Amino acid sequence: MALPRPHLTEIPDSGLSLACGVQPDELELGPDDGRSHGELSLSVEIAKAGTGLSVTGVLTGTFLRQCVRCLTEYEDAVSLPFAVEYRPEDVPPRGRHKSPGAEARDLPEGEEEVYPFDGDRLELAGMLREQVILATPMQPLCDEDCLGLCPVCGENLNERQCGCPGEGRESPFVVLKAKAGRQRKG
Ligand SMILES: [Zn+2]
Ligand SMILES: [Zn+2]
To answer: 161 C-alpha to center of ligand 2: Å?
Structure first.
């Protein structure tokens, strides 16, 4: 099932609620944006707000990420709530964000993000894609306490203690101590 693109005339004054599955392809996510594991699900409330629409909802799904410490792939179940506004393109949004390339993210915190209509239709894909990208961690960790890989033999220390001499892991401190020692002498 494709992501709904309701025509503006199809949205009653009382608003519209939608719930549907979303295929990752529909959001055109790049490999670094978060690889979705299977279908995402979307629930969205559309309400009229002046000449525009207020769109709130939540996108849930499972993403595959690679831990930066141990390089293991893990599944990250996420729930992304959003609250945005859609406006006709000829009405400039509040503030000075008229150019099409302007990042909606420049808006001060607390301000709703504004998206243009696609002609006479409500286009959710681009907005949802942004939500996913924003929620993608820069430094994904399989676990906050992930022990990472042994710098000596490369063993995943979450799975097994390899028994390598601890020197490798403590090296930054060893270097500091050595420097301090030298300074004291010199
Ligand atoms: Zn890890
Ligand atoms: Zn080791």
So the answer is: 7
Torsion of CA 10, 111, 80, 138, to 10 degrees: 140
**Ligand nearest to the backbone CA of 157:** 2
Q: Which ligand is nearest to the CA of 169?
A: 2
Q: Which residues, at least 6 apart from 43, have a Cβ–Cβ distance to it below 8 Å?
A: 17, 18, 19, 57, 58
User: How remote is the CA of residue 20 from the centroid of ligand 1, in Å?
Assistant: 33
Q: Which ligand ends up closest to the CA of 152?
A: 2
Q: Domain range for residue 48?
A: 8-134
pLDDT tens, position by position, 79-99 = 999 999 998 876 555 544 444
User: Rounded to two decimals, what is the model's pTM?
Assistant: 0.72
pLDDT digits (tens, 9 = 90+) for 54-86: 999 999 999 999 999 999 999 999 999 999 999
User: Residue 162 CA: which ligand is closest?
Assistant: 2
Judge if 33 and 115 occupy the same domain: yes
Domains held by the chain: number = 2
